Amino acid sequence: KCDLAGNQGPFTGVWQASPLPSGGGGGGTAKFTTWEAGHRVPFIAHWPDMIKPNTVSNVIGSHLDIMPTIANLANFTLPSNRSFDGIDLSAVLFDGSDQGHEYLFHPDMLGILS
């Protein structure tokens, strides 16, 4: 478990008896569900003299936000003929903004949405 994310303990929900593939054969974990720990991990950023040390934010972010954020920092304009789900989070990193995603939409293998 990641100490930075806290010790939430195992989830013992309905998928425990599910036939979903879990690497152990039998649905004994939350893998492939929205309860899987990969959905709620810390994002750690380090950039001396740019990002204030020991800053903590509760902004909801996603791996989808990395490209728009880096594009903005590089003064690169993303193609307008494509749709991007991520948002630029540079204001969160540098200015302490609390403006991230209002929500993220993710279906799991059971068709459950979170």
UniProtKB/TrEMBL annotation:
Cofactor(s) listed: Ca(2+)
Limits of the Sulfatase N-terminal domain: 23-75
A Pfam family that the UniProt record links to this protein: Sulfatase
Keyword annotations from UniProtKB, A to Z: Calcium, Hydrolase, Metal-binding, Signal
Gene3D superfamilies to which the protein is assigned, alphabetical: Alkaline Phosphatase, subunit A
Domain of life: Eukaryota
GO MF annotation: an example: arylsulfatase activity
Entry-linked InterPro entries: Alkaline_phosphatase_core_sf (IPR017850), Sulfatase (IPR050738), Sulfatase_N (IPR000917)
UniProt similarity note: Belongs to the sulfatase family.
Family matches, as PANTHER family: ARYLSULFATASE FAMILY MEMBER, ARYLSULFATASE G
Entry protein name: Sulfatase N-terminal domain-containing protein
Native source species: Rotaria magnacalcarata
Lineage: Eukaryota, Metazoa, Spiralia, Gnathifera, Rotifera
